[in-house]
Amino acid sequence: MVNIEDVANRNHLNLCHTSKQNQYKAHCPVCKDRAREYHLYVNVARGVFCCHRCGISGGVIQFHAWLRGISFEDAKRDLYPPSERKTPRYVHPAEKLTREQLAKLGYSLRSTRKIPPNGVDAKMWARRRKAELDMIWTDWM
Length: 141
Description:
By secondary structure, this protein is of the alpha+beta class. 35% of the residues lie in helices and 11% in strands.
């Protein structure tokens, strides 16, 4: 999770402490406020920002999009890039059978549950599920 303070640092925004804890102030790069006036406030604890002159406010992604002048979706991809390498989940061949094929074998049309019920050991549930899928696949072959 990206911190709003990190987004400010990435965009070369100089944050100054305020009297409130976890709150900073800065000169707004859009309004171009200068001198002693600060209009942009960033709350690190809540992860929000607000410019009292522009009237814009929002969260971390919107802050990044606003500072860079890009769309929300581009900012989201920039801050949280999709993982390069996704390992595909192993799918048992019996899971690829259609409902009609399972009905021909005499099995119920319900698919086997992937997540164990509450109170059941996950390893034991996975072994039982695999045994059921192996039995279905053996019958199909």
